[in-house]
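ok new one. same drill as before - structure tokens go in, u give me an amino acid for every spot. 669 of them this time. try not to just spam alanines like last time pls lmao
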């Protein structure tokens, strides 16, 4: 074969390998098997070994690692890699927003919120499109030259993809090198077999891998990279952070998961809350969110301190982890029929509480994390709230573990289960399923729903198991003599419960909509719908487009509400509740008397007589509106103890601040 033919084959192999790298690492949509990919790579290695004059620095073969190096050279960062200020609470994040607005002197900032990857910070330098230098953050001014190891990462481009256009003269991309949970489990199993030290977590493993002197060993570790910011730039015109991320995405980088531009700190907090709630779904470690001003021009005006830029802050969560063993996996049926696997653990203490059960969320989660009964697992609590399984400790497997088979039928009623179309949830479709009914009754009786005191889980189990309650409206058929026959239910308790059930009939439309358990309809959306329509009849007649047009509702909630009220089961339950005298209108009895009609309130701090949900509910009933942040449209701020920055902002804007007592005096209570 002539040199020209060899060069053509080499070029075609490189093109194919880079294409499949992109499909695997960037798009998560591999087109060929690992074996087929390895054959392409092996053929390229053979041809380049036979024709070393055809090897180029950006060839995929240069990722497999060269010879060991003698040690790390120190490099000076052209632009310092500063640290970030950080916080663990919402009040500090609001204060960050207040500072930004003060410094910008009335100019409105836009923010971008992105995942804070718990990895190793690195800098990648590209000159005329070619990767020439990679370094650790070090002390911010100087770092270690780890180019040899960074070249082994499949999602670090060796040459920028410019689609025939000119590459920037100089571009420095900064980001995080990380390791996935699955790779850590594989690596620790391999370390154990070799009799070598195990890694405690993904970050330690990534850091250790980058500091190896032999790049061939680093290449075995399958590290990954997320790009998240810029350093030195020459020949790249961008005006915002979002512009920069989109530009380098086109060059071939995987950019850190991030929001669209957000116009207010409330939007930032909502986005962060959603991201933090779904951390368990990620294949990598995060320890919070990073909030950045989007405009590069505004960033330049805000500047930096000696330690950190003023335009960025890390919104972190406290993390606690412990290792334990899964004794068993049970499946729980929720009020909407969703089957949720729950792991029963050998009890372990995490952040001062004893944890013996943890949700595994869904069948796909079990498969993705390769969880088996008997496995040793790492369990994490983020922010001292809900624990979840981070990863399986594969190195501790004994061979006695058993794969978990997700049930094909509902464990409560034996109905064949179905998977949501295009979703991850598996449901029992039987509306008469006793397990669903029990959960629905617990939700219906909840304080924020119909508030039926005395209707607890044990009694609900008895009511359903005895057949006294077969459907939700059957609650209103219960008599004292029926209840008195139940275990631990005397006549006085029965009388009290019947009275409480009767009292629930007058809770109003918002509470009924909350209690019905319509998918995607929580307390907030229920209030919006009740305020908008005022009666169940008006809501039943509303077309889906009308529902979707309500500010704060949107198409997903609208579709769910419309479907519920136009289903046979939904119509039947409404008509039965109506026959029993359940009020399904929203009265605004004292709106004119108390002068709350249309006024906006912000509640901040800890109150004495009310929880925040209770006082916001009262404001809504009296015709007012409750929001979470102070603006020029806010009429009053109700401040309890430890109120945070909302009070300062209110005074700055001239918004009146009320104590709890002053608010009660205003409404005549």
């Amino acid at each position: 074969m002539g040199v020209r033919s060899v060069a053509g084959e080499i070029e075609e192999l490189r093109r194919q390998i880079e294409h499949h790298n992109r499909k695997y690492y960037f798009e998560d949509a591999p087109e060929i098997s690992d074996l087929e990919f390895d054959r392409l790579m092996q053929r390229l290695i053979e041809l380049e070994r036979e024709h070393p004059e055809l090897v180029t620095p950006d060839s995929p073969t240069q990722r497999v690692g060269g010879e060991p190096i003698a040690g790390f050279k120190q490099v000076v960062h052209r632009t310092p890699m500063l640290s970030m200020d950080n916080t663990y609470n919402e009040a500090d994040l609001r204060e960050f927003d207040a500072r930004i607005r003060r410094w910008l002197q009335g100019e409105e900032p836009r923010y971008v919120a992105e995942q804070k990857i718990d990895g190793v910070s690195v800098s990648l330098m590209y000159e005329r499109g070619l990767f020439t230098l990679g370094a650790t953050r070090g002390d911010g001014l100087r770092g270690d030259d780890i180019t040899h190891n960074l070249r082994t990462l499949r999602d670090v481009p060796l040459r920028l993809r410019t689609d025939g256009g000119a590459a920037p003269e100089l571009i420095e991309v900064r980001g995080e090198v990380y390791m996935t949970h699955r790779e850590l489990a594989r690596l620790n199993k391999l370390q154990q077999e070799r009799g070598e030290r195990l890694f405690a977590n993904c970050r330690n493993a990534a850091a250790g891998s980058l500091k190896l002197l032999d790049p061939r060993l680093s290449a075995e570790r399958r590290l990954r990279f997320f790009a998240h910011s810029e350093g030195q730039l020459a020949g790249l015109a961008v005006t915002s952070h979002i512009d920069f991320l989109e530009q380098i995405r086109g060059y071939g980088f995987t950019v850190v998961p991030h929001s669209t531009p957000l116009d207010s700190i409330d939007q930032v907090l909502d986005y962060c809350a959603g991201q933090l709630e779904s951390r368990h779904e990620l294949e990598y470690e995060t320890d919070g969110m990073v909030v950045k001003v989007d405009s590069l021009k505004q960033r330049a005006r805000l500047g930096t301190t000696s330690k950190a830029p003023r335009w960025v802050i890390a919104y972190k969560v406290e993390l606690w982890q412990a290792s334990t063993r899964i004794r068993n996996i049970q499946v729980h049926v929720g009020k909407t029929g969703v089957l949720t696997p729950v792991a029963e653990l050998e009890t372990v203490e995490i952040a001062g509480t004893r944890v013996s059960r943890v949700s595994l969320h869904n069948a796909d989660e079990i498969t993705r994390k390769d969880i088996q009964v008997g496995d040793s697992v790492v369990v994490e609590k983020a922010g001292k709230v809900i624990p979840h399984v981070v990863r399986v400790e594969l190195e501790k497997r004994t061979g006695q573990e058993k794969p978990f088979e997700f049930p094909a039928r509902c464990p409560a009623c034996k109905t064949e289960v179905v998977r949501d179309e295009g979703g991850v949830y598996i449901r029992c479709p039987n509306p008469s399923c006793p397990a669903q009914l029990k959960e629905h009754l617990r939700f219906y009786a909840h304080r924020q729903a119909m508030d039926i005191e005395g209707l607890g889980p044990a009694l609900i189990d008895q009511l359903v198991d005895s057949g006294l309650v077969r459907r939700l409206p059957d609650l209103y058929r219960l008599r004292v003599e029926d209840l008195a026959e139940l275990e631990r239910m005397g006549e006085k308790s029965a009388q009290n419960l019947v009275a409480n059930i009767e009292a629930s009939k007058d809770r109003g439309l918002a509470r009924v909509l909350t209690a019905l358990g319509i998918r995607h309809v929580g307390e907030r959306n229920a209030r919006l719908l009740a305020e908008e329509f005022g009666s169940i009849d008006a809501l039943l007649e509303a077309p889906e487009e009308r529902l979707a047009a309500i500010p704060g509702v949107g198409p997903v909630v609208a579709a769910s509400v419309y479907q519920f009220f136009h289903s046979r089961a939904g119509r039947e339950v409404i008509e039965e509740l109506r026959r029993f005298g359940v009020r399904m209108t929203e009265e605004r009895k004292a709106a004119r008397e108390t002068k709350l009609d249309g006024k906006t309130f912000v509640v901040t701090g800890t109150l004495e007589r009310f929880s925040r949900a209770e006082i916001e509910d009262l404001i809504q009933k009296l015709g007012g509106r409750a929001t979470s942040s102070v603006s020029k449209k806010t009429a009053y701020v109700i401040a309890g103890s430890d109120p945070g920055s909302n009070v300062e902002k209110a005074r700055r804007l001239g918004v009146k601040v009320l104590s709890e007592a002053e608010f009660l005096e205003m409404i005549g209570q």
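Residues 175 and 228 are 5 Å apart (CA to CA). and btw Confidence is low (pLDDT under 50) at residues 588-593.
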